[in-house]
Amino acid sequence: MEGFIVNNCGKPKYIFKRNFPVGHRIYLSDLWKMYKVKVGNALNKEVVSEDEFVAWLTDNSYMKQGFVYYPGEKASFTGEVLEVTDSASDETGAHADGRLVKPSLAEARAGVIEKLTYSEIANLRIVDNPRRIIESITNLHKLRRAYTTVRQMSRKGHLQKILRDRIQDLERM
Questions:
Q1: Are the beta carbons of 35 and 43 closer than 8 angstroms?
Q2: Is 83 a residue whose pLDDT tops 60?
Q3: pLDDT tens readout for residues 18-65
Q4: DSSP label at 116?
Q5: For the purposes of burial, counting CB atoms within 10 Å of the CB of 127, is it exposed (0-12), middle (13-18) or buried (19 or more)?
Q6: Which of 12, 63, 65, 102 could share a disulfide with 21, CB 3.0–4.6 Å?
Q7: Per-domain residue ranges for the chain?
Q8: Is 7 strand, coil or helix?
Q9: C-alpha distance from residue 103 to each of 95, 100, 128 (Å)
Q10: Three-state DSSP class for 4?
Q11: 3-state SS of the chain: helix, strand, coil percent to 5?
Q12: Cross-strand pairs, 40
């Protein structure tokens, strides 16, 4: 089994005992390992062709609308595979090597800073000037949640200290 299935339905699915993000492919050889016994029993065959396996997947509602099957002889796949970026990130611009760049929050206005979520605060980088951003936040609950998240992350000791100091300052008031 050399063919594969591509998720072009527009949103990720949890199917085949795994997450199946948009634009990704799952090879039929991987699926065959999981469903070999079920398919063999259902079709009363020991040797099942790739087309019969895909038909079985379709009959048993594993092939959702938007899933595209590419047979083994077309395994070179020249179609379009979509890449999905996290909708929470504001990535714009590009490096010379094609990587996307997340803009710095170092010069962000107060309105933008107030709208930051606790996870965005926890993911602040040094180039974002985290001290200036955190010093302007007055929401104690949001800072505590960010601090809890940062404590579980590696290489965030500087941000953890800034958050801890700001929380202590707000608690003293």
A1: no
A2: no
A3: 888 888 888 888 888 888 888 888 888 888 888 888 898 888 888 888
A4: -
A5: exposed
A6: 12
A7: 4-74, 92-172
A8: strand
A9: 12, 10, 9
A10: strand
A11: 45, 15, 45
A12: none
Strand, coil or helix: what is 144? helix
- In whole angstroms, what separates CA 106 from the centre of its chain? 26
CA 84 to chain CA centroid, nearest Å: 8
pLDDT tens digits, residue range 59-81?
Answer: 888 888 888 888 876 444 455 55
What is the DSSP-derived secondary structure letter of residue 171?
A: H
Burial (0-12, 13-18, 19+ Cβ within 10 Å), 111: exposed
CA 82 – CA 162 distance, rounded (Å):
39
Q: Tokens standing for 106?
A: 């170092």
The three-class DSSP label of residue 80 is coil
Structure-block tokens of residue 40: 């063999």
CA-nearest of 63, 64, 39 to 52 is 39
Taking only the tens place, the pLDDT of each residue in 161-173 is 999 999 999 999 8
Q: Are strands 18-20 and 13-15 parallel, antiparallel or unpaired?
A: antiparallel
Q: How many other CB atoms are there within 10 angstroms of residue 114's CB atom?
A: 13
- pLDDT interval class at 92 (50, 70, 90): low
Three-class DSSP category at 69: strand
